[in-house]
Design a protein that fits this description.
heterotrimer; A mainly alpha (290); B alpha/beta (236); C mainly alpha (329); B: 236 residues; alpha/beta; 10 strands; C: 329 residues; mainly alpha; 14 helices
Amino acid sequence: MEALLHQVLAGLATGGIYASLALALVMIYQATHLVNFAQGEMAMFCTYIAWSLVNAGVPYWGAFFLTVGIAFVLGVAIERIIIRPVQNGPVLGIVVVFIGLLVILYSIAGWIYTYTIKTFPSPFPSEALFGIRYMSPHQVGAIGVTLVVLVLLYAFFRFTPLGLAMRAAAQNPVSARLVGIRVGWMLALGWGLASAIGAIAGMMVAPIVYLDPGMMGGVLLYAFAAALLGGIENPWGAVAGGFIVGVAENVLGAFVIGNELKLAVALVLIIGVLLVKPSGIFGRVHVVRV
Amino acid sequence: MPLLEVRGLHASYGPTRVLHGVDFAMEPGSITTLLGANGAGKTTTLRALCAMVRTSGEIRFDGQPIGRRATEDIVRLGIAHVPDGRGTFANFSTEENLRLGAYTRKDRGQVEGDLERMYGYFPRLRERRLQQAGTLSGGEQQMLAVSRALMLRPRLLLLDEPSFGLAPLVVKELFGILRTINEREKVSMLLVEQNAAMALELADQAYLIETGRVVLSGTAQDIRGNDAVRRSYLGY
Amino acid sequence: MTRKNLVLLLVLLAVACVLPFLVTDYRTFQFTLVLIYAIALLGLNILTGYNGQISLGHGAFYAIGAYAAAILMDKFGVPYWLTIPAAGAVCLVAGFLFGLPALRLEGLYLALATFALGVTVPQLLKYHHVEQWTGGVQGIVIAKPEAPFGLPLSADQWLYYFTLAITVVMFLFGWNLLRGRVGRALVAIRDHHIAAEAMGINNALYKSLAFGVSAMYTGIAGALGAIAVQFVAPDSFNVFLSIVFLVGIVVGGLASISGAIYGALFIQFIPNFADEISKAAPWAIFGVLMIGFVYLMPTGVAGAIRMLRARWAARQTVSMKVKLKEETP
C-alpha cells in the first residue's frame, strides 16, 4: 500500500512536468493547429543554457529566470524566422521543418555540451520539506512550480487584455484582425510562452533524469500522450492529462509491465486515444464541413 | 474631400479575378449601399478595403492611400468591418466580444462609457452580457457584431449583408438604429446588401455592382423611384 | 516511357553492373547501401509521397525486416536469400495491420502516432522477455554470404549484385504498380479522399494496402541491410532512422520513383560529407538541409530535374519552330 502511494505521489511530481510540456504543446496547437515536434528539444536546449549559467556562477534562481527569458526570445525567433514561411503550406512540409528543428537543436546541444550526462541542480533543499515522507523535496518543489506556472498562465489569459487578444487570435484569426489584433505577433508570443514553459519543465525534470541531449525524448512522448488524452484543444485537459499519464506511467511501470516498457505506455496511450476518442477526455468533437 | 475613394479596384482570390475595376466614392457622414446579385463582387469589395484579398488599383481613405496596408493597420485608421457571417468570437462572452472591439483604442477611460452606450442602443445585449456569444440568436449576434465594430469609434463602418438570415422586423429595427447612429455620431457607413428594398430605405447613395464592375450609381431616392431600374436590376 | 528515358535507364543499369569492377570493395559496399536505402525510400514514398500518409516511424518496419532476417539466419539456419521474401511477407502483414487503425488518423495525428512508434522501437527490442530471440542490447551477429557457385567475386561484390537484382525487381514492380490504376487511386486518395471515395475507390482497402506494400519494401530493405552490415542491434533502429528516411524522400522528391535513388544517394553520402564540414554536429547540417529543401526545393531533386528537362524541351521546341519558320519560304 505504501509502495503504491509512493508511486502515485512520484507520478504526480513527474505528471506536473508532463502537464507543463503538454500545456506548451496545446498552446501552440490551439493557435496554429500544428503539433510542435521540436518542443522537447527546445526545452532541452534551454535547460543546457541554464546549466551553463549555473556553472558560470550565476545563482540558481537568477539562472532560472534568465533562462526563462532566453527561452521566450528563442520561441519568438523560431516562430518568426523558421515557422512563419511554411505555416500555410502542406502538412508534410511543416512536419519536416519541425523535425529539422528537432535535429538541429539536438545536434548543436551535443556539439557544444557533448553527450556525456551531466547533473543539474535542484533549487529545493535536500531534507524533507514539511516532514513529507513519501516525496523527495524536489518532487514537492516541482509540483509547486508547476502549479505556480499554471496559475500565472490562467491569470494572464483570463484577466489581461493581451491574454484576451491572444485567445482571440487563436480562436478566430480573421475576426481578430478586424479588431486590429496583430495576429502574427500573437502567434509569436504564443510560441515564446510555450518555449518558456518548456524550459521550466526541462529545468524541473533535469535533476531527476539527468541532463543529456536525449533527455526530453521520452518526456515529449509522455507530453504528447497527455495532451491527446486531455484533449489537444483544451489546456485544462492537457494539465489533467499530464497528471494522469504521470501516475499511470509510474504505477504501471512499478507493478504491471516493469520499468523497461514504460515508454510503450505512452505509445499505447497515444494510439489508443487517437483511435477511440481523438478529441480526448475533455475535448469537444469538431465537425468539419466537407 | 470624399471620405473614401476607390478607383480601378481589381481583386482576385488566387488565380480567379473577381473585381474588374470598381470605381466609387463616399462623402463623410453618408450611408452608401452597394447592391447586386449573388457573386457580383460586393463582399469582395468590402474585403478589398480591409486588405483581406489581393488587390490592385487605388483606395484612398481621407485622401491617404491604404491599398498596401495590412488589415490590422487599416483598422487603426478608423475603419471597422462587420463581416458576413458576423465573425463573432463564439467562445467568448458578449461583453468580451465588445471589449475586443476596443482593443486598439488608447483612451481606456472612455471604453466603459461606450459599452454603456452600446447596451443603450441594443438592450438585449445587456441582458446577455455574460452569455457565450455563440449561443446568441442570429439577430442578437448581428447586433453584437455591429456593436463590436462601433466600439472602435470608427469613422467608417463597413457592413456586409447585415440583413442576412434575419426576420424583416429585426432588420427594420437594426437599420433604424444604424440610421440613428449615423446621424448622432457621424459614423459613415458602407452597406453591402442583397435586400435592395431595405437598403435603399436606409442609404443616401447607391452603387450597383454586376460581375465585378459598377454598372449604375445614383442617389438612393432616384434609384428607388426609377421603375425600369428597379425591375430589371433589383427585381422588384 | 519515352525512348529517350528507356535508353537513359539502360545506360544507368549498364554502369551499375560494371561499377564493382571500377571501385574498391568498400565503395561497392557503400553503393550496396545506396541500393538498400533506395528500396526503403521507394517504400516510404509509396505511402507518404503517393498516398499522403505521413510516417515518422518507418524505421520500425526496417527493424522488423532486419530482425526477421537475423533471427531466421541465426536461430533457424535459414539461407540468407530466403530471408528476403520472408522479411517482405512479415512486413507486408505487419504494415497492413498497422494500416488498419491508421485509417482513422489524418495528417498530423498519423505523424504523431508513427513518431511515437519510431521512438519506442529500441525499447521494445531491448525488452528482456524477448531477449532470447532478439539478443537484447547486444543484438545478433550474422555471417556475410560468400559468392555462390565459386564465382570469382568478393563477398562485397556478390552482395552488391544480389542487392542490385532485388532492387531492379522491386523498382519494376513499383513502377508497374504506380503507373496503373493502383497508383492513380493512391494519388486520388491523397489529393481529395472524399471525392475518391465518391468515385468508387475503396479508401480503406487502398490505404491499408499502401501501408502494407510500403512496409514490405522497407522490410526487404531492412533484411538486406542486416545482411550487408552483418549485425542488428536495437539502438541502430531509433527514431533517427525514421527521420533519415523522411529526409530521403523529401530531398529525393515526393511521389517520384527516381526520387528514391536521389534520396538514397543523399542519405548515404551526405552524412560523410557533413561530417567533414563539422566534425561534431553533422546532424545539424542535415537539419539545415532538411529545412532548406522544404523552403527552396519542395519537389526535391527529382522535381527540380523534371523542371529543368521541361524547360530545356520547351527551348528546343521554340528553336525548332524558329528554324522551320526560317526555312519555309
